[in-house]
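Lecture notes, structural biology module. Today: joint structure prediction for complexes of two components.
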Amino acid sequence: MRKYDVVVIGAGPGGMTAALYAARANLNVAMLDRGIYGGQMNNTDDIENYPGFTTIKGPELGEKMYQGTVKAGVNFVYGDVQNVTVDDQQMKHIQTDSDELVASAVIIATGSNNRKLGVPGEEKFSGKGVSYCAVCDGSFFKGKNVTVVGGGDSAISEGLYLANVTDGVNVIHRRDQLRAQKVLQNRAFDNDKIDFTWNTSVTEILGDENHVTGVKIHNNQVGDDTTLDTDGVFVYVGNFPNSQIFNNLNITDQAGWIITNDQMETTIPGIYAIGDVRQKQLRQITTAVGDGGIAGQNAFEYFEAIKHRQTVKD
Amino acid sequence: MVKNLTDKDFVKETSTGVTLTDFWATWCPPCRMQGPIIEQLDKEIGDKVKITKMDVDANQKTPMTFGIMSIPTLIIKKDGQVVDKLVGLHSKDQLKTVLAQYTN
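The predicted structure, tokenised, for the full assembly:
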């Protein structure tokens, strides 16, 4: 069992900022992650909307943020969190797969994961042409044609990435316009290698023994069903929160996003939530970083308040 | 340290007992998460399973024979025969559970 003032769960941009602020307030901070620091930034090729950098690679920005936390004295701890409980002294116990950490305050920054399409063939061809990470798997599709499903920022930016490594990209979107930022939209519309199939949903992923050969699609306006040939399907249809491990705390909405006020406080004193896992409108690196600063500072004030209370009691 | 295999020595190195090979690449973020898990697993599991890895950037033949189109992919072999293929990031506990089926 190891004791800290603050434990931050998740080392994405939000978690790293929270840890930085708490450590600079002289607290003893542990930042937990089940893998490498950087969070979803690691899955992003070029980042162009983080102030201070005209363009920066996702993993590189992660590395820079991490260096800042190290310099501030944050302890990076490797571990997969199983659950968090609160004892009658209001101390938080964080159980990982190999250890137990105890802290006065916990900042949840576990982010979100790609949502699946939920259609026949998706599971069967996962790793055989169905992918959720263009940066990881794009190079397996050199000289081939791929399909991107979705119309948000991730779908379009990864579609642009795939257009560089594959022969052609078809973006299938269920609506008649994209949700992605205008600058990405324009770049995609201008790219000769990217085509669009509008008002259309993928209803099945087709293939032979070894890999994907096509998709069955349904046009939502005309109502007809057709088949499109493709070698790969990249799914970007939104995210779901990584909050299942906190179910016992009852701090999420029905969809699993953690509810906080604008001070990042959950309903449990000393437990904060920040970044993508939080119920909010805009999930970006910049907003995660903003959340992190607020939570790091508030964790410090919470810690001071309990210390003061204890001194008065003694 | 988990040994890095190549197209040349893969078959020989995975021909006896239970083996697990992690197919990865430097550019792949979940692979970079899988890496330390594999290292830990190797320390804990001892001689029961031979844990290895292969960089798909430097070696294309072996990944192609297994039809790998997504990384990380983990191939488990028993006495030289492929018995399981796991696609995507897997936790240490998940891997231990799967491997237990082949070691007992």
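Point to remember: The radius of gyration of chain A is 22 Å.
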